[in-house]
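Notes from the 1:1 (GR / supervisor)

We went over the backlog. Supervisor wanted to see one worked example end to end before approving the batch request, so GR pasted a single chain during the call. The sequence is below; no edits were made to it. Supervisor asked that the structure be written out right there so they could see what the output format looks like.
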Amino acid sequence: MLRALVMVERSGSITDAARVLRFSAPAVSAHLQALERECGVRLVRREGAGVRLTEEGRRAVPIARLILAAAEELGGVADRGPVARGALPGGSAPRQHLPHEV
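Structure output shown during the call:
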């Protein structure tokens, strides 16, 4: 849903966004509608052959980009191999408390 919003903002067109994302135009429209329902605001407005982001949509795009970048970074962590459960950055792990210590 977030990628659809970012690509529509970049291209100004659901059709062009769909081409880049390798989705159908109806699928991109459905993603945008689902995101609008989730956010509770209208994010895009159809205008002629294209679409224009609403004020809320323009404010949402930078946030969507941050979330997508964070998700990509998180995926990179998983690609680096297994991480010990509860491990902290730098390879240390938090001290495990015994039930009677809590």
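Supervisor's comment: The beta strands are 44-47, 50-53.
Batch request approved.
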